[in-house]
Amino acid sequence: MSTNSPHHTIDVPYLARLARLEVTPEEVEIFEGQLGRILDHVEQMNRLDVSGIEPTAHAITVFDVIREDGVSESLPKAAILENAPRSANGLFVVPKVLD
Amino acid sequence: MSSFSPFTSIAEARRLLRSKELSPVELVEALEQRIASIDPKIGAYIERDVETAKKEAASADLSKPLGGIPIGIKDAISVAGQPLQSASRILDGYTAPYDATSVARLRASGAIPFGRMNMDEFAMGSSTENSAFHPTRNPWDLNRIPGGSSGGSAAAVAAGTALATLGSDTGGSIRQPAALCGCVGLKPTYGRISRYGLIAFASSLDQIGPLTSTVEDSALLLNAMAGKDPHDSTSLELPDEDFTAEIGRDLKGLRIGIPKEYFVDGMEPGVRSAVDAAVKQLVSLGAEPVEISLPHTEYAVAVYYIIATAEASANLARFDGVRYGRRSSEAKDLLSLYEKTRAEGFGREVKRRIILGTYVLSSGYYDAYYLRAQKVRTLMRRDFDQAFTKVDAILSPTSPETAFRLGEKTDDPLKMYLADIFTIAANLAGICGLSLPCGFSNRDGVDLPVGLQLLGRPFGESRLLRIGHAYEQSTEWHKRRPVQIS
Predict the structure, then answer these.
(1) Is B235 a residue of the active site?
(2) Distance, first Cα to last Cα, chain A
(3) B273 interfacial to chain A (CB closer than 8 Å)
(4) Chain B residues with beta carbon closer than 8 angstroms to that of A95
(5) Using CB atoms within 10 A of its CB, is residue A8 exposed (0-12), middle (13-18) or buried (19+)?
(6) Strand intervals (E) in B48-159
(7) Strands B207-212 vs B255-259: parallel, antiparallel or unpaired
(8) ipTM exceeding 0.90?
(9) pTM value?
(10) Most buried of A62, B77, B107, B266 (most Cβ within 10 A)?
């Protein structure tokens, strides 16, 4: 592993909260170093002048893909609920949200 | 029992099946026997459902183009009724309720899905060491990685434990393992094959493709899978095309671009010399080499790891413990259900990328990272547009080095990311790419396969396959077999 500390700092606990991901103190320390170094590498993009350049979201551009608004079959409800960690009465069960 | 021998191509297996020298059930049995004896050393398979495959083989329609041909499926692609996990603990217990369109089309051509192929978790990795199940080993040297993320798919074809497999390629995940294992891997053009039923990693980059032992087999699988699908709005309606049609034609007058940015210092010498020799070979077959420039190549890794992680952080938000897969038993409320399920279910590389992707999309950083990366992506795409006005295909090594050792790069993600340096530009530009064996490089006394990459213009697969086939048939590389597993 590289011993140089990265220029970039990244607030891992804050980002992990945004991403709904619990991280351990050990992971925070590892990710801070690794992601900082990755961002250092990414910084080379700043050498380029991109003014006036359109962004590319998809390489092969297709716009406004529409299909006929017809009725077709869906997967049976039971086939979907079979994969649920918990279900009852044809619904997904989650911990109580409102008191 | 049968005349099947390992390392049979699809084309040859079809001949055996149609002449009744071998029945489809015998083929599945012979394959299973080979897997049972070889795969414990390699770990290319996560699981096989032999009974279902034999049942399907018993009613195989041999009149169809892939009738009776078993095909291994990467664990990211849905096969109805079979477990599907993208090699992640977060999908423990998940069964695919439907066939991916690619799989449905293989079936419609008579093929039989057989086996879940190992991979890096959620296709994030270049070594298949990030699987939640087990690492896969390279058949040429069991101490080395097979590449990734479709490492199981590549290793099985190389070990003769599969005739052909499906993989997915977001930044090189078909081509790089094909190169490191010495088989043929095709990443079709973005929009060529429906991704419906593929577990999404980075939606503007992902593409499904075949891993095979010959270029011709690659064309056969593309024939079966290509085409518009109403379930994937990025798949394109194009005229029907037989991808084997150009195969067998010569290379006279074709121009092959050699990008100077891909031939820089730091490449493994054995890779360099094998690729240089491949250029000479193509010239002797009538192709004309043209030096070209792809000036934004050096930014590829940076652009890729911003765009791919941003898209992944959004795509992987669906794994929340509510609708499918595992759920943490520690959860006290809805928020901790999300946070703990994801903490327990995702491996370290996946967490790292989710956090990076969340960062580059977060308020205050979006313009500096994600938007800027998309603009550089435009520049990279223009590089290719420009190049393809002058050449029919672009040639490079698939990877700057042959297979590395297990554990060699696991502590340094940036080093691991740089393993993809020659393959990711094709995904960013949406073009097609083919990797095929072009020689060997000796590392620590072991000959390891070197991959040749050919890149083609959007929807130019037929031309690439023609060049690849002509090269392949004029060399003996594809006939060499790994000795460590025989």
Answers:
(1) no
(2) 49
(3) no
(4) 331-334, 337
(5) middle
(6) 70-74, 112-117
(7) unpaired
(8) yes
(9) 0.97
(10) B77
